[in-house]
Give the backbone structure.
Amino acid sequence: MQEYKDEIGRLLEPHVKLTAARITELLEVPPEPQLGDLAFPCFSLAPVLKKSPAAIAEELSRKLSGQRGAFWEKAVSRGPYLNFFLDPVAFGRNTLARILKEKADYGRTNIGKGRAVVIDYSSPNIAKPFGIGHIRSTVIGHALYLIYQALGYRCIGVNHLGDWGTQFGKLIVAYRRWGNEAELLADPVNYLYRLYVKFHREAEEDQELEGEARLWFKKLEQGNPEACQYWSRFRQMSLDNYNQIYDLLGIKFEYYHGESHYNDLLDGVIRLVQEKGIARESEGALIVDLEPYGLPPAMLRKKDGATLYITRDIAAAIYRYETFNFARSLYVVGAEQKLHFQQLFKILELLGFPWAKDCVHIPFGLIRFKEGRMSTREGNIIFLEEVLQRAIAMAREIIEEKNPGLADKESAAIAVGLGAVRFGDLSNDRIKDVEFDWDKALDFSGETAAYIQYAHARICSILRKAEGAELTWSDDAAAHLLQEEERALVKILALLPEKVIASAEAYRPSILARYLIDVARGFNRFYHRCPVLGSDAALQRARLLLIDATRQVLANGLGLLGIAAPEEM
Ligand code: ARG
């Protein structure tokens, strides 16, 4: 809507003591469409002009009467508001021509050109199954990746694997004590995970285990060949497993730089922190006091010399800035790590890095299943792979029932099943906890991916039936699209570009997800009232163009959420 707002700014500027830019900022969308398409509230002018807002609105409408812009038909005062009505023909022409011309590029811009965004997402922990808790990071992070890319940013997806830390000592001890090669090979990640759980169970009885694990981790840090061999083997086996999931989801990372990647930089970090005088020794450990900032102290080195998660994150942040010169560095990580990121960013600031302000934690709530919150320690976990396969199987059943004659049921089932999981996550405000409900996520008439995908497939089917119809835009088509539902649909379609920008700015793919529900709804309302095929030739043609533009918006929008838009389902 920006170009239409700008025009109002230009129309009003000569009549009020405000800049065009300020005017466009003030514009609001009226609560009812009968009230117009955009409203200018006159309250802020009242003290300046010493008149009531209503009198000002009234006067402005008189001044503007007879004047019209390229897109604005009229401006009418109502109470303290000056309501603008779009010229539906000019607006329809402009909007639809643009969508049908830009096609797959509609919604994309280059506002981020020349700037890099690092997106740290997914980041599972090695030798633990890819738990459902990581799915939110994966799905939200990937959507942000796609959205920022659509805005012309250079996106660098980093999978900050949890591939370092004392848990590797535990795993090595467990494997050396109880490990079985054949079982490991049969199902590596599951098996390693069971060993990890066993370690914790046994460690409750056997006090020596923890100490032994610390020793092995120490050996690993010192480059002991046996320890390193276990480590790299476990890591690779886990990665192979995660990659199957990423392949299924169509996700590729630029880098798999896990925590271990920064090992060689940690001494430098410790030195830097000491040089800057922000750290102090406390009982042999090295800590940074953050009390003046209302935060608990951060430990960067334990008394046995071992570094910590946050030490590696400091190294990673510096590395990322030096390597990618990012405009922003995003961390898509659960809300339970809020404190960690507050400490991290504060330390970067204390170290004097001006780019510390460009580091952003993108938190999200938990996914809850009936089993309650899942923790790998307790051995109670739902595997993402199982969740995805289950969603696909359920979609397969529904499609079998709804459309038994469909030629390629399998791709439709994959699109709908994966779409359900992704959208179920993305459509909610990310900070809220999500209760994943299978039936709801796959409801074709609910607020789901399937609902949007179904609208898309339906349009494709109408377009197939209209085979041979000329579908290039011509300006006269807009004059036929004046029914209320048609106008409403065009208005929704015009919003995609700003919704993409808003999603990026607020780091909320949910804005785009909710918008796509509106598009599908707008289409269904239209289709309910306005037959497409079989109406008179000019009208049919105009409506085919309208639904073709709708199809494009749905496909582009779903694409930015990482969700497929099948042509048939
Ligand atoms: N591996 C961590 C976890 O599962 C997430 C890492 C997030 N990224 C970071 N740079 N700290 O909790």
Residues 285 and 304 are 8 Å apart (CA to CA). The first strand starts at residue 38 and ends at 41.
